[in-house]
Amino acid sequence: MERLKHVISARQFDDPEFLLGLFESANAMDRDDKFRALTDPLRGRILATLFYEPSTRTRFSFEAAMQKLGGGVLTAENMRESSSATKGETIADTVRIVSGYADAIAIRHFEQGTAAEAARISPVPIINAGDGVGEHPTQALTDVYTIKKELGRLSGLRVALVGDLLNGRTIHSLLPLLCLYKDVQFDLISPWQLRLPLKHREYLLEKHATFRESEKLGSEVLEQADVLYITRVQKERFASAEEYESVKDAYILDAAMANRLKPEAIIMHALPRVNEISPEVDDNARAAYFRQAKNGLYIRMALLKYLLA
Ligand code: ASP
Predict the structure, then answer these.
(1) What is the band of 83 on the pLDDT scale with cuts at 50, 70, 90?
(2) What is the pTM of this model?
């Protein structure tokens, strides 16, 4: 794999060996953090986080990651209202300016393609921290790292992806990464109107991935899954409240359903959750979503070190 300058799409990560190296680096960060043995490889470097859409985990974990590596952050959690965007400044101009102050820029935007647009003109690394209904590559790295850590393998898995597959950018980034591994089978479970977009289905076909689609999260899917990945119905992408209301509670994972999973299976969610996983599931040993969120810190540390050290 060629050395990456920007991180825009999960499809850039087309080498399992590279991912393995990144996971090892993340493990080392985790260990050093526990034993308070972190060094400062990014001392004097600055990461700007430009967020035009809400975030908790992604922005905080990027900023914590940068600081734990000895670097600093310029943080803008409300770019849509607080930046010169309100005066009509273009993304290109904003990036030109911020890249003069920061050594890397993590950007979250409501429009698909914005990170790619920024990367075309930025002299410093651009990291896509979510672009509308497009992609969320650092979440996908976190997710694959989590699966490897929890299950010890990435091949021979049956992965059920549930919920809003149309708008869920975490899924759009996760699929290409999982396609790098042997014998991964997908169950795509969504209301028909939230079906995985054609271009992603075509990608699966191109990669000869095995997948089946269904509207029903039935016993067969639950009993066979190694990974049950639930997504939030992306309210902010719907044209009308009625449309959202009609699908928002399509799937609700409760304790009884969670117990139908294999004992070693895991339940994942990029969070935030609304109703799609009842809180009673949190005590189930299979519930990996809070561990998953923590893993995002170490993956982002590994990635920042790779891009900047
Ligand atoms: N936090 C994830 C994202 O930004 C998932 C979600 O919002 O549902 O895409």
Answers:
(1) confident
(2) 0.97
Question: Are residues 16 and 132 located together in one domain of the fold?
Answer: yes
pLDDT single digits (tens) 12-40:
999 999 999 999 999 999 999 999 999 99
The residue from 6, 45, 68, 108 that is catalytic is 108
Q: Domain for residue 1, yes or no? A: no
Residues 267 and 152 in one domain: yes
Nearest atom in ligand 1 to the alpha carbon of residue 231 is: 8
Tell me the CA–centroid distance for residue 136 and ligand 1, in Å.
Answer: 8
Tell me the residue range of the domain where 218 lies.
Answer: 137-293
CATH of the domain at 18: 3.40.50.1370
Neighbours of 248 (CB within 10 A): 18
277: in domain: yes
